[in-house]
Design a protein that fits this description.
The complex is a heterodimer. Chain A contains no helices and eleven strands. By secondary structure, chain A is mainly beta. In chain A, the strands form two sheets. In chain A, strands 2, 4, 5, 6, 9, 10 and 11 form a seven-stranded mixed beta sheet that branches. In chain A, 35% of the residues are buried. The model of chain B has no long low-confidence stretch (mean pLDDT 95). The chains are: A mainly beta, B mainly beta. At the A-B interface, β4, β5, β9 and β10 of A face β5, β6 and β11 of B.
Chain lengths: 112, 116
């Protein structure tokens, strides 16, 4: 009963380093999304995907890349980390008209 | 303009009492969905309740109900018989369009504190 799995749970990066946040779901959902949550705020959409091979930008896409080669996986890449990217990152999945979005446990990223 | 507005940054409620958390939304779509999520101090996002724009009845899930007033564009969450474990951040979110999946716009949240 895994649902949405994010790795790692915590990460510290130095400015300019790159890394990939992993997200996998086992519910065969078409839709997957990445959000970031800054302290004291709601979640904001970074990128989303409506199926394998299809991705698009959300509200705050700058500094992030995504790809979706399989239904299950939707990795988020930071090419050159900046302190402004310090945040908690959530991955979500759902069906197109689903009455619920399933969220992963989150990744707490600190860029120093 | 803000698409989701939660005007109560923080609220206190006495244990066993009911509490209403406010949410107003702004959309020109006829088809949309409204969600409430709970975020405890551990950080995970816990789904509470969903209301579709075409649903004629207010949604209910256990102690949670959604007071949906379409003309006023409000979707308030009502928690009955508050428990200490209800202390958390609560987020209202909206999906615009029928097939928009998990592309949600979130409000800024309300921190609920339940007093024993």
């Amino acid at each position: 009963n895994a649902g949405v799995t994010q790795t790692p749970k915590f990460q510290v990066l130095k400015t300019g380093q790159s890394m990939t946040l992993q997200c996998a779901q086992d519910m065969n959902h078409e839709y997957m999304s990445w959000y970031r949550q800054d302290p004291g705020m709601g979640l904001r959409l970074i990128h989303y995907s409506v199926g394998a091979g299809i991705t698009d930008q959300g509200e705050v896409p700058n500094g992030y890349n995504v790809s979706r080669s399989t239904t299950e996986d939707f990795p988020l890449r930071l090419l050159s980390a900046a302190p402004s990217q310090t945040s908690v990152y959530f991955c979500a999945s759902s069906t197109a008209g689903g009455k619920r979005a399933f969220f992963g446990q989150g990744t707490r990223l600190t860029v120093v | 303009a803000q698409k989701i507005t939660q005007t109560q940054p923080g609220m206190f409620v006495q244990e066993k009492e009911a509490v209403t958390l406010d949410c107003t939304y702004d959309t020109s779509d006829q088809s949309y969905g409204l969600f409430w999520y709970k975020q405890p101090s551990s950080g995970e996002m816990i789904f509470l309740i969903y209301q579709g724009s075409y649903d004629e009845q207010n949604a209910t899930e256990g102690r949670y109900s959604l007071n949906f007033q379409k003309a006023r564009k409000s979707a308030n969450l009502v928690i009955s018989a508050s428990q200490l474990g209800d202390s958390a951040m609560y987020f209202c979110a909206m999906r615009e369009g029928l097939g928009a999946g998990n592309m949600l716009t979130f409000g800024g949240g309300t921190r609920l504190m339940v007093k024993p």
